[in-house]
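Typical record was shown:
=====
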Amino acid sequence: MGRYTLDDILATRKSRDAWWTVFMVDPIACRLALVIANHTSITPNGLTAISMLLGFGSVAAFGTGELVLGALLFYLSFLVDCMDGKIARLKGTGTPFGLWLDFVGDRIRFACCAFGLGVGEYSRTGDQSFLWAAVGVVLLDFFRYINGPQLKKVKDATRALTKARAQTQVVFVEDVLKARPQTDVNTAAREVKESNEEGRAVVDLQKAFNARFPWYDRFRVTLVKYRVRTHFFSGIEFEAAVFVVAPVIGSWAFVPTSIGAGALLLAFEISLIYRVWLASRQIPKSVPKKEEILV
């Protein structure tokens, strides 16, 4: 067995993550991952399987009305799910199939828990709103998983078209911010311009968005200090609200929590779409060679 330290585990965390993961899961997951890394031979795929089993336990608990137990099992399922990636990065034991297994396992767990909770409460109360809430949260989860890859395609196409029209080498300000996330956007743009000795085009595809929301970059820099991403209400917070917080409060909270959390999730997804749309409008129509631009 290895002799890993807690610092080794902490180094495997994502540079930025959902606030629920950062504050409510990682402090426990990292310490459990340390024990597993040093004292067991469990593989990342094995952890994924354990996570799925705990998830099915949560489904059964929700279906039988044991809502607090279901919430606990769902939390533990997510906690174990957060550990498999850390072990994979620490030991280098991840597999391509593990990526598929992790993704599919998450989607199955989510859908089954939604219908386990919705159908279970409907069978006990006869209230159809539980069924509609279950359908709604599954559809929203499906939408966000379709939306993410499609937005990435648009972003990649925007960058590619910008490079083609610039007719010279391009430096994107967002790439500088990824490398130095604690730098504010104005400083990053200025430093790139000052150090740009090769006549490359300097492009800020988020200039229009930042002009409309000048507070956003300060908000981003603040969150970076705590390793929290700006997508403040993502699918992770959505799951936590619906399958951990609401069941602990009581069955009556499932429908209003689903509506409220769903509205927040949809609002943040729309904000992502808006940012990508603004960026796509910043593509230069024609840029003379070696001319420095900030679009």
Q: What stands out?
A: The first strand starts at residue 170 and ends at 172. The domain at 6-280 is CATH 1.20.120.1760 (Four Helix Bundle (Hemerythrin (Met), subunit A)). Residues 286-295 have pLDDT under 50 and may be disordered.
